[in-house]
Specification:
The structure holds two protein chains of two kinds.
Chain A lengths: L1 E5 L6 E6 L4 E5 L3 E4 L3 E6 L8 H13 L6 E6 L4 E5 L7 E13 L4 E4 L3 E7 L2 H5 L5 E14 L4 E13 L3 E5 L2 E7 L4 H6 L4 E14 L3 H11 L5
Antiparallel strand pairs in A: 1-2, 2-7, 3-6, 3-9, 4-7, 5-6, 8-11, 8-13, 9-11, 10-11, 12-15, 13-15, 14-15
Chain B lengths: L1 E5 L6 E6 L4 E5 L3 E5 L2 E7 L7 H16 L6 E7 L4 E5 L7 E6 L4 E5 L3 E5 L2 E7 L2 H6 L4 E7 L1 E6 L4 E13 L3 E5 L3 E6 L3 H6 L4 E14 L3 H8 L6
Antiparallel strand pairs in B: 1-2, 2-7, 3-6, 3-10, 4-7, 5-6, 8-13, 9-12, 9-15, 10-13, 11-12, 14-17, 15-17, 16-17
The chains are: A alpha+beta, B alpha+beta.
């Protein structure tokens, strides 16, 4: 499998090139176009292992995380094939190659990936809820290609030590990093008046991906200027 | 101090690298990410000299900027306690960020919503744009920036730089800022008939020689376009 990303960073599109009989798993509703010999199967679990109940539970957990309940599997039948995927929001896509590793994703950041990457949901802790970014994060582990998306452009940062990110700007991070949610600026004055609220303080060593725009911030700005609605 | 702008023009973000003892100031809510060796202080959005009167002035300017110009009442100060500390800053809107290098004697006037951040030696004050601006729907106040150091401005859409010599006309909703050597007056785009029918409304007419920055999209027009498309 190869994934090429076109039209970065504003209107990124992921083009997946599959070998014959190869499969790519994607977020429901993300498919833009595909060859006719690529067939779609839909399941709640995303992988074929496990029973129906297990699949349903995984789907429910994903739905709680703000992703779609169902995941789609696209398989190239008899010949190499191509499928393209795009996220809903305007923004960027990054492809990350995983080898027996784990990446944590902000709940709406998953786009598509190899079938050998298992997606699970992880409780982000009560404080991320107050950060306004969703209670549950997605945990992607395994080997293969993982594509994730953002609002705004994605910037990759190699963290070694400590690094602070506004909660609304986190896209993904490797599991070598741990974080705690803290008040911006460390004091009450900056927390209340600084306009940032809570931030994530990362520590450890690993890759971190941030997005240059914040969906909630954009929504508040536009919403405050729109006429009142019934 | 090093200031670089990335992912232009759609999602511009400034990456500011500070050495020990250096300070950068941003409008509240602009911080995307930062190194841990920065200390943050939140202050009133206005320049004060630390004296009681200076503080009162800062409060008044801050209040005016919040309620009259739609800006935040507070700004954040990022002070580097070690070398090589970074702070990344971005506006809420989709669009561009432009870095201006201010020098002594240079004055740049920007729309109130176009200010993003600046070095600590940049003085920002509020100026009245004139009654006619009230009807343009873009806010009646401008921010006048003077001093020495980097100044970051932001836009809705991409930023286009125009070197004005003589005269130039810009729609009020597309102005980001201009250099102090330019004089402006606000007027109708054409006659009364054009004002009502052309969809252009008010324009700023500049005279003189200097740089003008405009934005390739108009937030007011965008809001008017998207409103009827939204479900009830």
């Amino acid at each position: 499998m190869q994934i090429q990303v076109h039209h970065r960073p504003s209107y990124a599109l992921a083009e997946v090139l599959l070998e014959a009989e190869e499969t790519v798993v994607a977020e429901g509703g993300a498919m833009v176009s595909q060859d006719t010999h690529v067939t779609l199967t839909t399941s709640a679990s995303g992988d074929k292992k496990g029973g129906m109940m297990k699949g349903l539970m995984k789907g429910l957990k994903r739905a709680l995380a703000g992703e779609s309940f169902f995941q789609n599997r696209f398989t190239a039948n008899g010949a190499p094939g191509h499928v393209t995927f795009a996220p809903t929001m305007q923004g960027d896509i990054v492809v990350h190659e995983m080898t027996q590793s784990t990446v944590m994703l902000q709940s709406t950041a998953y786009l598509c990936g190899s079938p050998d990457i298992v997606l699970d949901t992880k409780w982000g802790g009560a404080k991320t809820f107050f950060g306004g970014e969703g209670l549950i994060m997605l945990k992607a582990s395994g080997s293969g290609l993982l594509a994730f998306n953002s609002f705004g452009a994605i910037k990759e940062i190699e963290v070694d030590g400590e690094f602070i990110v506004d909660t609304g700007h986190i896209v993904a991070f490797e599991d070598g990093l741990t974080f705690k949610v803290t008040k911006f600026g460390g004091g009450w004055k900056s927390f209340i008046f600084g306009g940032e609220g809570l931030v994530c303080s990362f520590s450890g060593k690993g890759k971190l991906w941030i997005q240059t725009r914040n969906a909630a911030g954009f929504g508040q700005l536009l919403g405050s200027q729109l006429p009142p609605r019934d | 101090m090093k200031v670089e702008v990335e992912s232009r023009p759609s999602y511009g973000m400034a990456v500011v690298t500070l050495n020990k003892g250096e300070t950068f100031i941003s409008e509240s809510g602009a911080m995307v990410a930062m190194s841990s060796g920065l200390s943050v202080d939140t202050k009133f959005n206005g320049t004060g000299d630390g004296s009681f009167m200076g503080k009162m002035k800062a409060i008044l300017v801050g209040m005016a900027r919040k309620f009259l110009a739609g800006e935040s009442l507070f700004v954040n100060h990022f002070d580097a306690t070690q070398d090589g500390q970074q702070v990344m800053l971005a506006p809420s809107l989709v669009g561009d960020v432009e870095k201006l290098r201010m020098t002594e004697g240079r004055k740049v006037t920007v729309q109130a919503t176009s200010y993003l951040a600046s070095g600590k030696n940049i003085d920002v004050s509020l100026v009245w744009g004139g009654f006619s601006m009230l009807f343009g729907g873009e806010g009646a106040f401008f921010l006048e920036c003077t001093g020495k150091g980097p100044l970051l401005i932001n836009s809705f859409g991409a930023i286009e730089k125009i070197e004005v010599t003589g005269g130039y006309i810009v729609d009020t909703g597309h102005v980001v800022g201009w250099e102090g050597d330019l004089e402006y007056k606000i007027r109708k785009a054409g006659g009364w008939k054009s004002t009502l029918l052309s969809g252009e409304g008010l324009v700023l007419e500049f005279t003189g020689t200097g740089t003008l920055w405009l934005q390739t999209r108009n937030l007011g027009s965008f809001l008017r376009w998207i409103t009827p498309q939204l479900p009830n």
